[in-house]
Write a structure and sequence with these properties.
Two copies of one chain form a homodimer. Chain A is an alpha/beta fold. In chain A, a hairpin with a 4-residue loop joins strand 4 and strand 5. In chain A, strands 2-10-9-8-7-3-6 form a seven-stranded mixed beta sheet, sandwiched between helices. In chain A, strands 11-12-15-14 form a four-stranded antiparallel beta sheet. Helices cover about 35% and strands about 15% of the residues of chain A. Chain A contains eleven helices and 15 strands. Chains A and B meet through helix 2, helix 4, helix 5, helix 7 and helix 8 of A and helix 2, helix 4, helix 5, helix 8 and helix 9 of B.
Chain lengths: ~400, ~400
Amino acid sequence: MARRNPNLARLQSGYLFPEINRRKRELLQRNPQAKIISLGIGNTTEPLGTRISAALSRYAADLGTPAGYSGYGEEQGLEALRHKVAQRYYCGRVSADEVFISDGAKCDIGRLQLMFGPGARFAVQDPAYPVYVDGGVIMGQTGDYNPQCAHFNEVAYWPCRPENGFFPDLATCPAAEIVYWCSPNNPTGAVSTRKQLQELVAYAKHHHAIIVFDAAYAMFIRDSELPRSIFEIEGAKEVAIEVNSLSKPAGFTGVRLGWTVVPQQLCYEGGESVRDDWNRIMTTIFNGASNIAQHGALAALDDEGLMEMKQHVDLYMRNAALIKKTLMALGVTCWGGENAPYIWARFPGKSSWEAFEYLLEKAHIVTTPGSGFGPAGEGFLRFSAFGHPHDVQAACSRLEHLLA
Amino acid sequence: MARRNPNLARLQSGYLFPEINRRKRELLQRNPQAKIISLGIGNTTEPLGTRISAALSRYAADLGTPAGYSGYGEEQGLEALRHKVAQRYYCGRVSADEVFISDGAKCDIGRLQLMFGPGARFAVQDPAYPVYVDGGVIMGQTGDYNPQCAHFNEVAYWPCRPENGFFPDLATCPAAEIVYWCSPNNPTGAVSTRKQLQELVAYAKHHHAIIVFDAAYAMFIRDSELPRSIFEIEGAKEVAIEVNSLSKPAGFTGVRLGWTVVPQQLCYEGGESVRDDWNRIMTTIFNGASNIAQHGALAALDDEGLMEMKQHVDLYMRNAALIKKTLMALGVTCWGGENAPYIWARFPGKSSWEAFEYLLEKAHIVTTPGSGFGPAGEGFLRFSAFGHPHDVQAACSRLEHLLA
């Protein structure tokens, strides 16, 4: 009698990264000596800043003492951390009770779909990070998959290509209630300008849509003119949620710490408070981020922690600059890499998987095929700047050798 | 245009613990000198075992070194930890690839509902821990709330009262596809016998239902005859999922570490693998438990860690024995407290909230009103054994003074 949620059958099996791993293993079987370098996934490689790791370590040791022990905390996160995120990260643009600490952006995006429920029509940038669509599939928001166009029938895909400056013509885009928007973008490395985000906010106001703004790479923005948060845009608090994470800037990919900001004034069509629903969801099916990780986050948002994060970001952005310079010198057209840790490169005449196979086979370099992020990613490869600098340098030498 | 998930409107506002906190605050306003002792929530109070906290602390410090750093792990958890849970906790009854490490049982129960989706009909013990029903409400499995009987129309409530030995007559119970079963039980402290679980497994086989077995308190079982896992019952791997947690035995309520076991042979009605769906859900909208917490769990499942957990359990179970002895000596009928850290007490002539108010007002003791766990809990109070021993002793003295 126990039946499967029919939405699960709609998930497309080829989740990108398992397929990449399969091809990697296959190469290693044929060529066990191959020294593969990964510029594939966005996994951090550098040790935590010493101040931050010391704070994590000290708090964990204190949990073994009567004075330092702590059990359940508030599901929404430590009051001190919510305040610090509001004050130090958002410069007071949002208030502490609008900040919900979590175990990461991907997990929050999974939970967010519960607020809109089955049938909600959403838009994604095409290409996009897979969790928006896959989370929506599980929730029953996507309709069936159409293999012909590699689209789900009920999802609004907003193409973001070099030709449109990675920003769609909102006047002609298919309509949506929920808009997932990622800037700096994974995978394209494009960063939305202030003017573009103003347009996006105006769109959301006009259509009473809600923007879910994924700012997980915001700390990688170098250009001070570019907005790092949707809440830098006037009126955004009436139409937007922001998801964020310490995974990439602090190296917390394994430690797990993120947050979501849901403004007080954000309402559904019927006038109900979105923030109150998020509070109810987080207190009902979540039990707080690890208190150890939260104390690491408190340290990361101190002056010294912020400096340590900046050093991390600088290191990865030097990688990005090297990859981009190498590709461009070789005549490969590419984008991103200046305010984002991803480079988006076009290999004319090759499909994404053909280009992937070519670099894997000939240079033992793993990248990510752009088509895995959506049909508009076909023909592109994503190069990730997350890696040890000497590995990235070695990979660039191989590229020079192969493509020169 | 952005609409609210209509299921959220069905959630009943009075989530138990906020209401308890409100009444506590009210007392403190009237009587700022009151020294309130909480035997209310199941929050651990004792510091972590020193071996376990040392392991957490050491791993966190190592994350600050090139050799010790680690980024994303497998979403399903560290291979070594999955093996250790399978071997040390389940004595090889389950295999490592059936164990999925997570940030806790409550979070897993929230995610589990995605496998069954809207419209799945589930049964809960009445009374029950609130997340089963609330999670089902959010997922659209419950129908409307009927305030007259304090039941959701589409949920099968299986009454578990002293009169039926806290085990329902399965032949006459309303049918369900999914059965949430918690043993040792929160809130009643009842532990299902082997024979009862055999009946439950037979029921599930007969009706092709899936049991979600919540074993979060399994380590509190003292009687070696009582089963600690549903997988001790023959045939259970064909019909059951088990959710578990280190929150209570290791004091990881704040650290966050649990797991769910989904056997390979468990299928939906249509023959699809439940385990494969769980794997897909965990890899899609979850990103792994904190690697620090996972290393704490590795230590907790070592010989010394198991000893430290046993010491924790022993301490809380001494509290339980004292509370139960005190109540019984005073003529209060009560159950549980022998193989579970909860005591379930009846105060004849008083509703749950009346009894709660009486103890709060007269003895400044916080308990949990049984009616908050479901209508069959009306007339009962739950006493939690989680507390510092000296606080529990003081509370028992107050009870003696008040009720003698």
